[in-house]
Amino acid sequence: MLVLLDSASMYFRAFFGVPDTVRAPDGTPVNAVRGFTDALSFVIGLAKPTRLVACLDLEWRPAFRAAALPSYKAHRLAPNGKQEIVPPDLETQVPIILDVLRAAGIARAGADGYEADDVIGALCARETVDPVEVVSGDRDLFQVIRDEPTPVRVRYTGRGMAKATLYGPEELGQRYGLPPSRAGQAYADLAVLRGDPSDGLPGVAGIGEKTAATVVSRFGSFDELLTAVEDTGDRRLSHGIRAKLAAARDYLAVAPKVVQVATDAPVRISGPDLLPDDPDDPDELAALAERWGLTSSIQRLTDALAAAAR
Length: 310
What we know:
single chain, alpha/beta, Rossmann fold, 14 helices, globular
């Protein structure tokens, strides 16, 4: 099995989920590092993957998405209009997380100008050998769920790692009222219509999640839906729904490019994605554990790697 981590989602949730009283001997906050490392150990122990990649945001607000829809994540922009607003105590911990991953021998992947979602989407699209499990608290990644050519599942951590739910086509279809045969793509279409205020995605006025699910379930593709908007004789759309969709023509023309992951993202991986039996650099990992007060978390990670190899 190949496990793909939505790393930013994991360390943001760790930062807000683990008390900021968790600090290194020198007083530096390490709550996100500890929470992320413990979550990584939990995932390895649960899934026992043979391959694992920590996927990274090399661009949190890609230019092609902002150009298509200027409101995309605009509310998260720092005063300089370029960087994301990130709590300073979290920003200082991200390099430590990367140091832990590197010393442990966990592959890291990113794509210049793209988000971690795109990296995950691209790696899923190219995988033809092993089943894939994506770990994320971001519902946008439900769109990668599939059965063929290799199964892709999403372990959704929105309620925390211990309460994470594993979604495949059947589970996704049941939760949102979507056809299991194309649940992943249908979810992306639903997300376009419903919108997402947390990403600055307005959606179609007057169409909520349930209505969006009903509408997209009647069509085989988003293009087919857009064609039906212009065809007043297509009875799959009521007059009221057609009017709402027609009023949002400009938005609907660009939103799919914003919502859909870029499966052609030029992903770069730090090295082989095989999960190591032992840390690549045990001395460096031990030094990180001592410096940052992470002895118990690093030990759990080392134990998880050894157990997964058995």
